[in-house]
Design brief:
395 residues, alpha/beta, Rossmann fold, 3 domains, 6-stranded mixed sheet, 13 helices, 18% strand, globular
Length: 395
Amino acid sequence: MGLNATPSANRIHIGFFGKRNAGKSSVVNAVTGQDLAIVSETKGTTTDPVLKAMELLPLGPVVIIDTPGLDDEGDLGALRIKKAWQMLNRTDVAVLVVDATLGRDQEDNELIARFAEKNIPYVVALNKCDLLGGAAPALRDDEMLISALERFHITELKEKIAALAASEEPRQKLVADLIDPLDLVVLVVPIDKAAPKGRLILPQQQVIRDILDAGAIAVISQDRELPETLKSLGKTPRMVITDSQAFEKVAACTPRNIPLTSFSILFARRNGLLDTAVAGARMLDQLENGDRVLISEGCTHHRQCEDIGTVKLPRWIRNHTGKEPSFEFTSGGEFPENLQQYKLIVHCGGCMLNPREMASRRKRAEEQGVPMTNYGILIAFMKGILERSLEVFDL
């Protein structure tokens, strides 16, 4: 599998921001070495955020985000600006592009304040320096002169972006830090109507890769073959990891001395959501009739007749609580700004979202006082096996 097959969630997200005609799209094209963005003298050419997964040396796999101008006008312009602001929630490194002939102003400084508020490392690229003649301005510590047109200091800009990315804290492993080389890890992967034809879903692929990176051994079984799989192994597995939908069945046939958890719970931990999600799951028993519950998925996919998010989870919640909450659903990049209308948020594992975006969603829920949990943890709670599913983390 090549670098371009690296999941988006595992890539550094580099966001390019600035005003119309500051040359954002030209800088994006210069940095990527591709005609990734449309370039025009007409203000507002970039009308929606453009995201492109690619390989960018010296960083490797990245996602480039080209955003609309932050000084766009009118009602439609306001919507475009809102979209640009939303991109901050998934940006790991920001590049603020400023027209060097004008310099940065109050609006640029307000954007820099937002970077600081969200702990996003950034660089200010003073573009069009070829128009300055010999009058180069004094540079601040966060600024550098570039010219997208003449490719001046573009290599240095890429190196600066790479250095800022390297300053980010290492991302939490999924499972590699919980196992030792040559450990056996059994993965339970049900193949049912909801399973994609001919392939494994992304969370399963990523956990398998994490196990292999740790030098451990992945043993894969369907739920119905799990008892025979466990009997056939020459030693006790270090742990069993299951699809959340099979939690109850897998718990019943996995000996109590073998740690058990789920793919979704591992992603909650990787995304910094574990403690929040555990507390959120316990709020389930406080639901009343008519309470609004938001079920949010980070990806978009064709929904099956027994889709977990829109069908199974609402049914299980009704059965567990004996109540009739009102369910609402979002997917992909959709996640409401105002969450106070909800009594509980149930999020997927977030395998398609980078940790920064998941952290942004978690923070938004916490600031508005709305409990938030995730699929795997909520299912484990409803099946009475939550405490067992967390023992693998020594909580």
